[in-house]
DNA sequence: AGCACGCCGACT
DNA sequence: GTCGGCGTGCTC
């Protein structure tokens, strides 16, 4: 194998944003091989990127060749991620777990006994048959319509064909519940994967994958990158959830990468949600799972205002006295205040961007977080003339105080990021609620994520107007999907009452019975206002401890970008969150009708001092 | 002027 | 990851 002839390879360092370096070796190596190379005084792991001619400069020699490698598909997908999401190749490839050189590629079929598999209803069977025929599709079905049984049937089918499956969920906190469910059918063939697993646990799962015992990997975002051979299926459950978008480099969207991976590997991709994203509904074939599995009656009541009022307290009391359980949602107390009208529920929108304008008390003005347009704080609502406008909302702690005082004896579970800090606390809170020890689950966004709560007969959703007023082109989508998700948590077994607090009941009422109607109207709005999926957005973040330097980088970048005709600079200036970790933050928001010119322009600007977020979901 | 410290870029 | 160059800011 070894000879005196030298080969030269460009390598990227694993877990590093550094540019590629060139090393020499006596061996011919495969692209994707993992090697150890000297760098200054240390030896580091790197991946062979490509073969090159003998360079002009002196080269060091590769220290050793390790017994793991990235395969061709992993290298190609990492290349795509690094280019589309603006990270180095080293950072992109590090998302993946490499294959062992000894890995076997053939898997023997595993048969799941038919009698233990869930029996599909006619509606489920029809959706299943349709999904079998499609390379990729969006499964659109309300909460409780039995999507999980369809997933299980699909995964069982894959196993019978000697293929493996990946099942993505938006959050780690959802995995224990799904694990229980999957183990019933797949036992040791299924493993749960997320970034918080111990090194030891990860190693043992990887061993199981390598031996072919594990055929299904389920978990959060990172489960997408495990080294499964013969991948046949990727399921992205709750595909509308923004948790799929990574907030650090590479800032990839797991749902979109899943679709790419599916087409590269010839694996089926099933996106699923009761409240699908506008973009998925627009882009993919939709398979509807119409009728709820268990049909229960839901009665809606609309209440205006922004506090807990007597109607709510009385209703909570009634349900409590009847021995039933309730759920109350409050939006997370965000960093930004918005002026909204108590009377009509509407917020003041930016005239240029159609997103809510944020209130900056310090500067006494309203500011658009997209284009940085500002105007004085107004006193009256431009929609109905009502005065005064409000900006304060209730927090979870205050809400608990008010309810505890009014409803004697009720035990309330605080369900938010402040109180649910660990998996153990989550489990205990849910257990107390399930056992009936507590009767009201009161919390934030977390409530909307598919945890199973048994006998809820009352759901109260507060602060929807606040969500509607967010500086986000998807504010309406967020508000509507939240309402549907929370309403879906109640009435699983018995009829349920749902109280919706909004000053704009007509908006929500129009769509209550039909989320698809909302999608159609919202897509029309997005097309008119030129937002995704009818345009491409990118956000540039500039952070520097020296404010004038940050400002200069921003302006220089804007100047360079102005040369590109096909892209629009929506706005630039101080970022909504002006300072993080002692660094002053500036941002630039860009839009283009097509993504390719936007990508091209951004690849031309100096990216060392800026961070690019392509297809952003967060504008803070 | 001299020195300590921290940031940033290069390393192959 | 580690090293060294350089600029900033503090002290003598």
From TrEMBL:
Q: Which Gene3D superfamilies match?
A: P-loop containing nucleotide triphosphate hydrolases, PriA, 3(prime) DNA-binding domain
Quote the catalytic activity from the record: ATP + H2O = ADP + phosphate + H(+); Couples ATP hydrolysis with the unwinding of duplex DNA by translocating in the 3'-5' direction
- Tell me the ranges covered by the Helicase ATP-binding domain, including all copies: 128-294
Q: Which cofactor does it need?
A: Zn(2+)
Reported EC number(s) for this entry are 5.6.2.4
On cofactor binding, the record's note says: Binds 2 zinc ions per subunit.
Q: Does the keyword Transferase apply?
A: no
Q: Name one GO molecular function term.
A: hydrolase activity
Q: What does this protein do?
A: Initiates the restart of stalled replication forks, which reloads the replicative helicase on sites other than the origin of replication. Recognizes and binds to abandoned replication forks and remodels them to uncover a helicase loading site. Promotes assembly of the primosome at these replication forks.
Q: Subunit info?
A: Component of the replication restart primosome.
Q: Which family does it belong to?
A: Belongs to the helicase family. PriA subfamily.
Name of this chain's protein: Replication restart protein PriA
Taxonomic lineage of the native organism: Bacteria, Pseudomonadati, Campylobacterota, Epsilonproteobacteria, Campylobacterales
């Amino acid at each position: 194998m070894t000879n005196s002839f030298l080969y030269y390879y460009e390598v990227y360092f694993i877990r590093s944003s550094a540019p590629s370096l060139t090393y020499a070796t006596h061996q011919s190596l495969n692209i994707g091989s993992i090697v150890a190379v000297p760098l200054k005084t240390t030896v580091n792991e790197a991946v062979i990127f490509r073969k090159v001619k003998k360079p002009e400069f002196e080269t060091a020699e590769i220290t050793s060749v390790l017994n793991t490698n990235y395969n061709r598909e992993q290298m190609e997908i990492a290349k795509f991620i690094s280019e589309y999401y603006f990270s180095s190749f080293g950072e992109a490839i590090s998302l993946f777990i490499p294959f062992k050189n000894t890995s076997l590629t053939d898997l023997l079929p595993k048969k799941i006994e038919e009698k233990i598999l869930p029996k599909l209803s006619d509606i489920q069977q029809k959706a299943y048959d349709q999904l079998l025929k499609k390379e990729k599709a969006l499964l659109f079905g309300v909460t409780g319509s039995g999507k999980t049984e369809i997933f299980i049937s699909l995964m069982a089918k894959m196993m019978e064909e000697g293929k493996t499956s990946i099942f993505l969920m938006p959050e780690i906190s959802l995995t224990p519940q799904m694990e229980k469910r999957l183990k019933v059918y797949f036992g040791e063939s299924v493993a749960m994967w997320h970034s918080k697993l111990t090194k030891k646990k990860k190693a043992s799962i990887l061993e199981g994958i390598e031996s072919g015992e594990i055929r299904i990997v389920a978990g959060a975002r990172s489960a997408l990158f495990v080294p499964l051979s013969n991948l046949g299926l990727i399921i992205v459950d709750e595909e509308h959830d923004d948790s799929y978008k990574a907030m650090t480099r590479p800032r990839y969207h797991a749902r979109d990468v899943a679709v790419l991976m599916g087409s590269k590997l010839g694996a089926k991709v099933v996106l699923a949600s009761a409240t699908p994203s506008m973009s998925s509904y627009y882009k993919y074939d939709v398979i509807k799972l119409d009728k709820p599995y268990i049909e229960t009656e839901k009665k809606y009541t609309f209440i205006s205002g922004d506090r807990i009022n007597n109607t709510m307290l009385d209703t909570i009391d009634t349900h409590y006295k009847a021995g039933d359980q309730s759920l109350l949602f409050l939006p997370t107390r965000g960093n930004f205040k918005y002026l909204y009208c108590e009377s009509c529920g509407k917020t003041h929108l930016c005239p240029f961007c159609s997103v809510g304008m944020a209130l900056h008390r310090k500067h006494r003005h309203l500011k658009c977080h997209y284009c940085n347009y500002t105007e004085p704080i107004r006193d009256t609502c431009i929609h109905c003339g009502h005065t005064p406008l409000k900006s304060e909302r209730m927090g979870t702690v205050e809400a608990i105080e008010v309810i505890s005082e009014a409803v004697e004896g009720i035990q309330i579970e605080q369900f938010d990021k402040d109180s649910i800090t660990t998996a153990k606390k989550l489990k205990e809170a849910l257990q107390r609620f399930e056992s009936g020890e507590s009767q009201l689950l009161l919390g934030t966004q977390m409530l909307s994520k598919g945890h199973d709560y048994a006998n809820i007969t009352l759901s109260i959703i507060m602060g929807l107007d606040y969500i509607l007023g967010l500086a986000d082109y998807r504010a309406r989508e967020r508000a509507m999907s939240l309402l549907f998700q929370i309403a879906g948590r109640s009435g699983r077994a018995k009829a349920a009452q749902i109280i919706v607090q909004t000053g704009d009941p007509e908006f929500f009422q129009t769509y209550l019975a039909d989320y698809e109607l909302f999608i159609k109207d919202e897509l029309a709005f997005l097309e008119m206002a030129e937002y995704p999926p009818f345009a491409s957005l990118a956000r540039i973040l500039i952070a520097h401890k020296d404010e004038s330097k940050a400002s200069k980088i921003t302006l220089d970048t804007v100047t360079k970008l102005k040369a590109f005709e096909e892209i629009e600079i929506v706005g630039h200036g101080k970022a909504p969150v002006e300072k993080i970790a002692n660094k002053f933050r500036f941002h630039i928001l860009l839009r283009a009708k097509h993504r390719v010119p936007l990508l091209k322009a951004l690849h031309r600007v100096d990216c060392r001092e800026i961070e690019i977020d392509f297809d952003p979901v967060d504008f803070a």
